[in-house]
């Protein structure tokens, strides 16, 4: 991965928040690091943590996109026995130094407990691809050695922050190169913005080189045009499942087509996504269309209902039964979206996920989050609260 840090431009930046904006944008512009609102960064200045606010993308973030939160309050929160994510968001808001700032990232406590000024967090494709295999932890350990702190998957939010807090109580932070959250992403940190950024690029480049060396994707097809009648039927049926008009677009790259023809497509697709938050955009799995559109959609809605019933409790409210995408065997993937923005988000996520799945399958096997972990994220209390507000 290319290091895009421009020393002469950076030397014109006079304050740490401006530096924070600059390297955050550098990270955000790299699609193999973060996509559409993924990842977050922070800087500590005079007892205040400036952390990415929700609703901002790293790619286009500006100073006002960073929420200033009282650092000591956040560190105290990490030592609480328990805290719901709703309570956490409320307390983080109360600790804001500026009342019109955006909500601090749900990862704010984790940023606060890392004792360095600049903290960078991304969902780097290459690192999560290696981690999303049955022996991913061993591979990551071997690749990065003992100075990388490796944390098993935990739902992002208070529980993840608390777990890192407990694990690092007696650790010498100066010896750490970074933190890898299995099936999720990576953290780097330093008191210098450039060093934190350089560490991210170096660690990710190492994973990219590893994949280059050990994974070898054999493309089995080039991608083909989808049948017009099939697309019309899909458009009509998915619109009715979603209760609003959807557009259908096709990704028929060689990689998408190759995965659509994979003998074990279903096993791969049901084994979780690239990084946890993607489930909110594309659901835990999609549909598979072999010959018959109606069969494919029926199988999807049945599988989604089973997933819901198995994992839900009475406090949950079920989301719609419309797939966000469907593999069309021998063609590629159909994307279902309500507008251009959603089309871009889903298409980008799928393009990166398909590539990661093929690489992981070539290393050993793709396996990411379990259905219950996916459910926990898709039906996260904060997302459900938004929904209940919408329907009131
Ligand atoms: Zn994350």
Reconstruct the topology from this structure:
Blueprint: H1 7-10, H2 16-28, E1 40-45, E2 48-52, E3 66-70, H3 71-78, H4 85-94, H5 108-113, E4 118-122, H6 125-131, H7 136-144, E5 148-151, H8 158-167, E6 178-181, E7 185-190, H9 193-214, H10 228-242, E8 247-251, H11 254-260, H12 265-269, H13 278-282, E9 287-289, H14 293-311, E10 325-328, E11 332-337, H15 340-363, H16 371-378, H17 381-391
Parallel strand pairs: 5-6, 9-10
Antiparallel strand pairs: 1-2, 1-4, 2-3, 4-7, 6-7, 8-11, 10-11
Helix pairs in contact: 6-7, 6-9, 6-15, 14-16
The chain binds zinc ion.
CATH class of the largest domain: Alpha Beta
Unreliable parts: none
Provide the number of structural domains: 2
The proportion of residues forming helix, as a percent range, comes to 40-55%
Number of helices: 17
* Mean pLDDT figure: 94
The largest sheet has its strands arranged as 3-2-1-4-7-6-5
Shape estimate: globular
What structural category characterises the helix and strand content? alpha+beta
- What ligands does this structure carry? zinc ion
What name goes with the CATH superfamily of the largest domain?
Class II aldolase/adducin N-terminal domain
Number of strand elements:
11
Order of helices and strands: HHEEEHHHEHHEHEEHHEHHHEHEEHHH
Distance between the termini: 47 Å
